[in-house]
Structures are given as structure tokens and as C-alpha cells.
Amino acid sequence: MDRRKLGNTFQVVGAYDAVIGGKNCVIAYSGGLEVIFSKDNALDVSAVRFNGVNVSFLSKNGLNDGKRSFTGNFEGGFLYTCGMDNVSDCVEGKPIHGSLHYKKAENVSFFIDGDKITVCGEVSETALFGKNLVFKRKFTVTPNSITVDDEIVNNAFTAADYVLLYHVNYGYPFLDECLKLDVPSVKTEPKTEIAKERFDERLKITYPVDGGDEDVYYHTLKSGRIGLLNPEKGISVTMNYSVDDFPVTLEWKSMISGDYALGIEPSLTRFDDFKMRTLKPAESKNYKIEISFDNIIS
């Protein structure tokens, strides 16, 4: 950023509150990267654009109040955080993918330092005679990256269980048949019979089909570095995270017309071998994912 060329830095980097579709949001932009955070949804990332190209998936439900069934609620967005009481439909009586996403973030703040924007907030999960967990979120946005730095704190006087899955969703036009996936798997297992039938195409993005089924796969990675490359748009995205923290990575592939999406989902647990983590009183645990965006046009 050359300050001599700027009348006001807000020309190239900034953050501000906004209401979009009835949702209270924070819009942050730096260089060619624009990120929309939803205060009403645990500060999850509703949308991402890079160099003017949409990267994220937004379902036909759009941004909503979460008062319908899961299939009527699911928004997608770029980051839909699942937890802390459930992922998928593993825990009977709890919302599918957990209740975290539809909790409002509190103490939301943001500040700008050069071309770096930091957005912070907290989400509480509490119950009378029960748990007292605080999910502290810090996002850092630069011209070519989003870093998610979350801390789960147990403020109760007894141990508390939790679970976490980061549902990172890619959509058109970044998601297209030309998209190439680099997933350093040492082992991949199909979750369903449909996925088993399509196993050879697990990393292939195809043209949408009208109707049909989604594919879901479990990946065990040798390193937490996943690459996505769209050569036609000249954009690559790289996800980096610890496989010690996230021993399971799920791939959700929906090549269905109108529901055309790809989810890369670092998770603490499988669905078919569901295990929660435990925090002792006053104990905390940090989880971090860095997502970088690159312009590959020479």
C-alpha cells in the first residue's frame, strides 16, 4: 500500500458495520479480498470475494433466522462453524451441525493496522446447572488471507464436553469443472454407498446434474495443506491447519443443479465414530486455520 497515492486509506482497506438481508454484519476488505462476517451467526463468514470473483457458496435459503428445519435453514456461506454440542446428526436431540452457528456473537470489535484487519467476538454456550463455555473468535484479514484463530474456554467449575467442525464452502464461479483439488490423503473412505460408487471421481468437479445425491468422504491427511486451483479465473486457494488438532477432514461434494457446492471440513471427529473433546475447569484450547488466496495470472 503506497500511502502517497491515497487520499484516504479507506480506498483500499476498511471495515464497517452493515445490515444484509436482515443480518447484522461486518464487511472487511483489504486489497482484492472482501469478507462478510455475520454477527448474528457466531461471526461466521457469510461470503468471500477475491479480485471480484465470488469464492463462497450461498445456498438457495440465503441468509435466514434459522427457524426452519436444517435443510430449510442451511445457508452455506464461506465458513459455517459446526459445534459445540453437535456435528452432523451425531447427537440426538441437538440441532444438525450444532447450535453454535445460530448464536449471536457478543463483544464484536474490529480494528485496522496497515493493510491488516482484525475482527473479534465471543459466543457463549451455557446452561443452568450445566456448561459454561465461551468461544472466543479472532479473524485476521489481509489482502490475500483469512486467518481463523479460535479459543474455547471452560469457565465452569466442572469439566465440559465440546466438538467442532469448520464447514468451509466453495461455490460458483470459483467452483467449476476446471477446479483442481490437491488433497494430500493417506487414506480416503466414502461415507455413503453413493460416494462409494463415485469414489474414482472423489476429487473431480463435474457439470451440475438435475437432482441426485451429495457425496461425502473422510480424508486422513499426511499434512494439513489443501489446495484449490481455478486456472480459468486465475485464482488459487490454500487451506492450512494442524492435522493433530483436526485428525479428520471431510469432503462434501454436491454436483446438484442449484445446490452446486464443495465443502472442505476440518473436524475433531468422524460422524461414524463420534467423539467429543473435554475441557477441565478453567482450561482452554486454541484452533487455527489459515486460508490464503493467490492470483496466478502472470
Shape: globular
SS-derived structural category: mainly beta
**Over the alpha carbons, how many angstroms does the gyration radius reach?**
19 Å
| CATH class category name | Mainly Beta
**Count of separate structural domains:** 1
Q: Please state roughly what percent of the residues sit in beta strands, choosing from under 5%, 5-15%, 15-25%, 25-35%, 35-45% or over 45%.
A: over 45%
**What string gives the helices and strands in order?**
EEEEEHEEEEEEEEHEEEEEEE
Average pLDDT over all residues: 96
What key phrases describe this protein's structure?
eight-stranded antiparallel beta sheet, 2 helices, seven-stranded antiparallel beta sheet, mainly beta, globular, 298 residues, single chain, 20 strands, Beta-galactosidase, Chain A, domain 5
